[in-house]
Amino acid sequence: MKLNKLFTAGLIASSLALVAFTGKTDTTPNHIIVKGDEVAVGLNLGNKAPEIKLSDPNGKTIALSDLKGKMVLIDFWAAWCGPCRRENPNVVAMYNKFKDSKFENGKGFTVYSVSLDKDPKRWQNAIMQDKLAWPNHVSDLKAWETAPRQDYQFNGIPFAILVDGNGIIVGKGQSVRGRNLGMLLKSLSKN
Predict the structure, then answer these.
(1) Mean pLDDT, 10 residues at a time, over the chain (191 residues)?
(2) Domain holding 154: CATH number?
């Protein structure tokens, strides 16, 4: 917790320096605003990840916040996306390796897969073909028009963000892809 307060203090100091230098405040959603001990929702490291609530292949709604307490890789992908499908074996390997691990701010590791598919059969077949064993597969079948795409501001997939058990972003982009994901999870693990 002491490290989080130091991190927050550093972010505040950086923000104040930016305001002093430019004379402007940043009002974009990525700007970190600290309210007491609460961290604002945003997309920077240290921000709370925006909420996502979508349905699984059976129509059951699964919210990102339902996974609170676990280290979660929010993985945006699609069955039709070649690079996504090539990354899936790595994600499966990391899930199998770290799913029972303990982290400072999380017990266990899981994946929250957000599909940008339109065809439900193709999406479900890809889940089975790639052996995506975690239970958290969601989509609204709106492809690029899905609401989380706007909230997470990405233009290409695969795209991923790693959040801790409190929903705080601890990794994103290339730091959570390929072998980097394993190195980051290992560094955050208490095992």
Answers:
(1) 41 34 36 59 97 98 98 98 98 98 95 98 98 98 96 96 97 95 96 74
(2) 3.40.30.10
